[in-house]
Amino acid sequence: MATFNVKGSLFAGVLAAIGASVCCVGPLVLLMLGIGGAWVANLTALEPLRPWLIGATLLFLSLAFRRLYLQPQVCEPGATCAKPIVLRRQRWTFWIVALALLALLSVPWLAPYFL
């Protein structure tokens, strides 16, 4: 059975979340930077892909969670991955990225409350 790389899963989750939120967060960020125009409205063309990209984000986050918490670590004694601080850093990184991605994905639902 193939093992999933935690960094790869988190990176794929980040890309999927960015893709899922580009239709909503993208125009907001561009307008805050002073960049505008009629072409910004074209970013909403990605809205039909949003549910698929949200699903991909959650899939990759769950793969990273499974790798970090549910699968036993297989490391050679003395290897870098055998050190407890490495696993602790990976878990902290996972939760920071997961919270950031969930915040990014929730922007379309929470944005009306800030307008």
TrEMBL record:
Membrane topology: Multi-pass membrane protein
UniProt KW keywords: Cell inner membrane, Cell membrane, Membrane, Mercuric resistance, Mercury, Metal-binding, Transmembrane, Transmembrane helix, Transport
GO cellular component entries: plasma membrane
Gene3D superfamilies xref list: bacterial mercury transporter, merf
A family per Pfam: MerT
GO molecular function terms listed in the Swiss-Prot or TrEMBL record: mercury ion transmembrane transporter activity; metal ion binding
Residue ranges crossing the lipid bilayer per the database entry: 12-40, 52-69, 92-111
Subcellular location(s) per record: Cell inner membrane
Domain of life: Bacteria
UniProt main location, coarse: membrane
Known role: Involved in mercury resistance. Probably transfers a mercuric ion from the periplasmic Hg(2+)-binding protein MerP to the cytoplasmic mercuric reductase MerA.
Family, per entry: Belongs to the MerT family.
Protein name listed in UniProt: Mercuric transport protein MerT
Annotated organism of origin: Variovorax paradoxus
